[in-house]
Input
Amino acid sequence: MQIYDLVIIGAGPAGITAAVYAARQNLNFIVISRDIGGQTALSAEVENYTGYQVISGPELVQRFEKHMHKYNINLRENESVLNLKRNGENFLIKTDKAEYLANCVIIASGKQSEQLNVLGEQEFKNRGLAYCAICDGPIFAGKNVAVIGGGNSALDAASILIKVAKHVYIINNAENLKGDQLLRQKIEQSANVTILNKSQVLAVAGDKFVKSIKIKNNGQEQELAVEGVFVEIGLVPNSEFAEEVKRNQKKEIMVDIHNQTNIAGIFAAGDVTDVPEKQIIIAAGEGSKAALGAFGYLARKKTGNK
Amino acid sequence: MVKSIKVYTTPTCPWCIRVKSFLRDNKINFQNFDVSSDQSAADEMVKKSGQMGVPVIDIDGQIIVGFDQERIKLALGL
Output
């Protein structure tokens, strides 16, 4: 099996930026990713990426991708990393499709939506239960829907859904909605919204598709007739494949100022790490830092000076 | 070799954008249905695929849910 200089896991802002840097250094490397753009591809409007006053998430991702493909990059899309571990002097990366060896790894696998873990969630996935309002929201035009969560991503989802759905229930665990005040006001003032604070989802039910959810509101169980359920209760890092790498309580990969993890030769960047603040521009910057860290490591390794 | 290709999408979903650009890059003609504005297309998509997520690709009756590049390539003989 050939040994790559570098394997980059993930192709969001951090992974793509690292790939651009690696290509410019003529490294022998591959990028393995489930998708392109990660969470950025699911963002509506981005107004804080320098150089673009306003750009949609998907459009920004297209620009990232175009930039990456300016170079001849070996990209393994639709491929999930299952395990990453030390293998003597190098690293073994197992995916759902193949195995790879690398001298150095950059983990930039980002985060994904947290699951509800209630009865019916798996059964009704894509059958009325969704994790992306911007993607699937329009299909629920004229229907009653529920948004689960009370933070910014729930508010974002609700603001998309109030424009298309008949009625939007917000099922919020806390006493009040959190998140951006302007967005909150806009939602609270909408005619077709019911906010249910101190509420939890107990189960999702239906036949072939979602028909209702069972909730507990202020200790009282009740059933809501909805055909769509949007789960927006937060994000979890995609770090489960990196068992040997040190992670914090939130399962975020811990990195030093050079993006190195506790294992020499494994770097990490972007939302999967414990770097404070999850922003597209921060992830991109961290991706470049990790790439520079990786170059240094590879150079030291080559000269035998670790 | 003549294939009928229908793609059911919404304008904002990133995977829909990727499916469409993938087909265009491979010079494949397709019919796009925007299920956010075309209710009968939305119903047709749900009926065909048995689910409500976009994108859905119908290649000569073979239904593929999501941007599954390998299955799409296989179905198109790419």
Observations:
- Chain A is about 25% helix and 30% strand.
- Helices of chain A lie at 13-24, 57-69, 133-136, 152-164, 181-188, 280-302.
